[in-house]
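Title: [Solved] Annexin 3D structure

Original question kept below for reference.
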Amino acid sequence: MDPEYFKSYEMSWGTLGTIRPYSNFQPDRDVKELQIALEKKDAGTLLRILTNRNNAQRQVLAKTFEELTQKELGAGVKKVLSGDVADLLLEMLMPPMHYEAFRLEDAMAGLGTDEETLLEILCTRTGPQLRQISQVYKQMFKKDLEKELKTETSGDFAKLVIALFNKTDVAGLVHKDVQTLVETLKEKKCDMAPWIYIMTSRDTEHLRNVLDAVEFETGLFLEEAFEKRFSGDLRLGLKVLVQCIQNPDLYLANRINAMKTPQTHRVMVSHCEEDLLCIRAAFLKLTGTSLYTTLQKHFKGDQLTALLNICRSED
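Solution (posted by the thread starter after getting help):
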């Protein structure tokens, strides 16, 4: 295991995630339990251990398991479990950046492209994170992520996607950015270039101030303005980007609220060690019902057990 992994993804009890380091972590003991559970096809034990250790600890378990058995833990999970719960545990065994790379590849695989998943990752991840994901993507799939994104998208939407992929943090003046964006909305044909440039080259706090001021000066919510001035995937992309700038927790809560497999799984797994507590709070405010209770209405069996373990508790 690369020691830098632990430096990059060390979690503490102060995190806003729901899955935290297991305080009495004993890899050898866990691996013995996992071996017995795989032999007996004991799904309960597999779920209990793998959803109650953080990602760094799961990487240790996978490495220790392979050293002791000369077999991959993931392969064993595949033999014992199937369907959605197997997919969920296999995804939890991936290191974080590998998981995001996997999600991007999956969104572009086969016929059609899952634009919403591309946007979710590109809009909620920072520039440095996306550069890490790009490096891991190349190692995993032997392809260049930026080239793949260009191939899978087209037109103005492709320009937005590539700008998000290469997002930067350039200093700017709020009043100048506001003036530029307001002027585009007054033109007969709205120029999308300033929107793409400004919204992918400023820090989040700056952008929140800019977008609030644009809404105040135009008297329109930006979603209304985009409905009138843009179309197709570009409109979708700008809407998602604005939502992620203004309230990323609410955006992700909405994604989870679709209660679709694998969408709900993947947002929860991606954010369970970072900010799932915030997303849970946003979900409660959005729906009036806790995420913990809502999951119980839409899923069942081992799949439900795994999701409840990730969610952790009632709100």
